[in-house]
Specification:
By secondary structure, the protein is an alpha+beta fold. It contains three helices and twelve strands, in the order H-E-E-E-E-E-E-E-E-E-E-H-E-E-H. The strands form two sheets. Strands 1-2-3-5-6-10-9 form a seven-stranded antiparallel beta sheet.
Length: 162
């Protein structure tokens, strides 16, 4: 397990490990009456010199019952620029914009776009995240999609989703 993923997972003290699938870690976590099922990966390659950059991770989340499904989020390890949108793409595909920001984490605004991106991730090799820090440093993080489909199946089964 990469150090960055270990640190990110450490924040989820109540998480139950579903297994390691290639470059992906699958887990579940009970949040009171809500069960979350998620998978996370650390980047295999990062570009951009960001001083004091925190942990970096790519996460896919489901909620039991299907209220949340295929939610894609990225932990950037820095607060992103307010007007330069973080972008993700699978391999050489087209960019998807991540417009929702909370601290150093970004999400896609539209749930249907999340689902489309996850569909592409199942057949892709890498997901590339392009961002910019609040002070203008460009970054690019590459995440391997090796094991993605198996980890995705594990979290779907754990949350009772087909």
């Amino acid at each position: 397990m990469g150090l960055g993923v270990a640190i990110l997972l450490g924040a989820s003290a109540r998480a139950e490990d579903l297994g390691i699938f290639g470059d992906w870690y699958a887990l579940t976590q009970d949040e009171g009456k809500t069960k979350l099922c998620y998978m996370i990966a650390a980047p295999t390659h990062s570009l951009g010199e960001v001083a004091n950059r925190g942990d970096i991770g790519l996460m896919i989340t489901h909620q039991a019952g299907g209220k949340i499904r295929d939610q894609v989020s990225v932990i950037l390890g820095f607060e992103p620029h307010k007007t330069k949108v973080t972008k993700v793409k699978v391999d050489k595909g087209s960019n998807v914009l991540m417009r929702l920001i909370d601290g150093d984490r970004v999400w896609i605004k539209e749930a249907n776009v999340d689902r489309q991106l996850v569909g592409k991730m199942k057949n892709g090799n890498n997901l590339i995240v392009t961002g910019m820090t609040a002070d203008g440093v460009a970054t690019q993080d590459t995440f391997s999609l090796s094991g993605f489909t198996k980890a995705y199946a594990a979290i779907g089964a754990a949350c009772g989703l087909k």
